[in-house]
Design a protein that fits this description.
By secondary structure, the chain is an alpha/beta fold. The protein has helices spanning 17-22, 46-56, 72-86, 106-114, 131-134, 139-156, 172-176, 189-199, 222-241, 265-273, 290-297, 313-316, 352-361, 379-386, 408-417, 446-459, 461-464, and strands spanning 4-10, 32-39, 62-66, 91-96, 120-124, 168-171, 204-208, 280-284, 301-306, 319-322, 337-343, 363-374, 420-428, 467-474.
């Protein structure tokens, strides 16, 4: 049998706390291992009411706790979830001491977790049409709840009927797997923990609950709350895309990803190879070999080099060499290559000029180097610097792994100093497919945005090109 704990968060709940505890169903009480009332430094007699209830009523395995200072709504939950973990509970239910959520629903809230059907259960006032308004939810709160929930679902890639109910039950094992301690101490905590559960791949299930609005005091500033939770989901979406430091997308894998849409450097490289005869290719910084796999499917022979041997790379290239390109191209790869590919790799080495010069030495007669580089002159890093907000991102131009930055002019100067001339150059826009990461399908508006962005790249490439793609040849081969 699951060990079930009830966390009662209470603030100035002296008039309602005893009633809330009384309403816990008698037939559910035997399932409860622990009940803790966390009084968050109330200004009334909440703590004394709790102590009195504990002394006069032995029905519940009750613990009364008063914080020495106000931790806030989120801070109070953090303390409660730490307690649940320390008590080695299996399930913890969040119950409010003001009576806004019906204790009579505890069996329904807990049941899916007992059956191990999910990792969290949320009580929803919006699942039954019209129930929220019949229960007294003010119209402005109802409309605001619906608008915010729809926005949050679209941004985060969920389909919850309500994000803003405070009646919840969690698997304690799931809580251990998410960094809830990093969340806000205020009301946005409830939104942030949804994002964390989603990011960690946890299963969330909703059950309908009744709506009750009485004479309890609401401590939520509605406009500030809406701004804060909207900011949270947008920050999460940005982190999924690759912008920002990524702490809200803590489970997102950082492996190098193949860019599949037509207007990306990877797809353009494949198109360039379509017009080449079967070639011997040296893929510098081949990552997991997915780009090499596409080239091999067209008959090309590919040798890969990278710092680490990623899973599956051995099956996607003809030969693989593990080497640090900061120390140069390993001699054992040999020479005489028709094409040397440096896709998204030169920004990761400290001396790209030296690597290009070494690559030129490994080319066969009339061989070329195909290189893609990020454009630090793009409007995004420019605006970050102008605003004094320069920092590294999880992905993209400001990828935390980048040690060199290029403009179009600076890269061409480096190539020239390495004995290379530009045979062909293309300007590549942002890989708009990344805007679909973490959101609901179809909400990226990628086609329309792509048309506008493509036009901007054509008109002003040094400002709007996300990358530049080059085919380089030895200066002695020109002409």
């Amino acid at each position: 049998m699951k060990r079930i704990g009830i966390l009662v968060v209470a603030y100035n709940a002296a008039s309602t706390l005893a009633s809330v505890l009384d309403r816990i169903p008698d037939d559910f009480v035997p399932k409860i291992a622990k009940v803790i009332v966390n009084d968050d430094f109330s200004g009334d007699a909440t703590y004394l009411v709790g102590l009195g209830y504990q002394q006069l009523n032995e029905r519940l395995p009750l613990e009364i706790n008063r914080h020495p200072s106000n931790l806030g709504y989120g801070g109070n939950q953090k303390a409660g979830y730490r307690w649940a973990i320390e008590q080695e509970l299996d399930i913890v239910v969040l119950l409010h001491g003001d009576g806004q959520y019906a204790p009579e629903m505890l069996p329904e809230i807990v049941a899916p977790l007992e059956r191990e059907e999910c990792d969290a259960v949320f009580g929803s006032r919006m699942m039954e049409k019209g129930a929220a308004r019949r229960g007294g939810m003010p119209l402005y709160k109802y409309v605001g709840n619906k608008i915010l929930t729809r926005f949050e679902n679209a941004a985060a890639g969920l389909e919850l009927s309500e994000w803003h109910s405070g009646y919840r039950a969690y698997s304690v094992a799931a809580l251990k797997d998410i960094p809830f301690e990093n969340n806000s101490d205020g009301f946005p905590f409830d939104t942030e923990i949804i994002l964390q559960l989603h990011e960690a791949g946890k299963r969330i299930l909703e059950v309908p609950i009744p709506t009750y609005y009485g004479d309890e005091i609401c401590y939520v500033d509605g406009m500030r709350y809406a701004k804060d939770v909207a900011s949270d989901v947008l920050r999460y979406r940005a982190h999924k895309i690759g912008f920002g430091t990524g702490e809200m997308a803590f489970e997102t894998h950082d492996e190098y990803e193949l860019k599949n849409s037509d207007e990306t450097s990877h797809r353009r490289i494949v198109q360039w190879f379509a017009h080449k005869p079967v070639s011997r290719v040296l893929d510098l910084g081949c990552a997991d070999g997915r780009l090499a796999e596409l080239l091999r499917a067209s008959g090309h022979e590919v040798t890969g080099v990278d710092l680490h041997k990623s899973d599956g790379v051995g099956e996607r290239v003809d030969r693989f060499f593990e080497a640090d390109l900061d120390h140069g191209i390993p001699a054992e790869v040999g020479g005489g290559y028709d094409v040397i590919l440096a896709a998204d790799v030169l920004e990761h080495v400290r001396d790209p000029r030296r690597l290009l010069a070494q690559a030129e030495e490994h080319l066969g007669e009339r061989g070329t180097i195909i290189a893609s580089i990020p454009n630090i002159g793009h409007w995004y890093p420019r605006s970050r610097v102008a605003l004094g907000r320069f920092d590294y991102d999880r992905r993209g131009i400001l990828d935390v792994g980048h040690v060199r930055f290029f403009t179009r002019r600076s890269f061409e100067r480096i190539a020239k100093s390495a004995g290379l001339a530009v045979r062909r150059r293309e300007s590549i826009g942002m890989p708009l497919e990344v805007f679909e990461r973490g959101g609901q399908d179809g909400h990226g508006g990628g086609m329309r945005l792509g048309q506008v962005e493509r036009a901007a790249v054509d008109v002003w490439p040094t400002m709007f090109a996300f990358q530049f793609l080059y085919e380089l040849e030895s200066v002695g081969s020109v002409g």
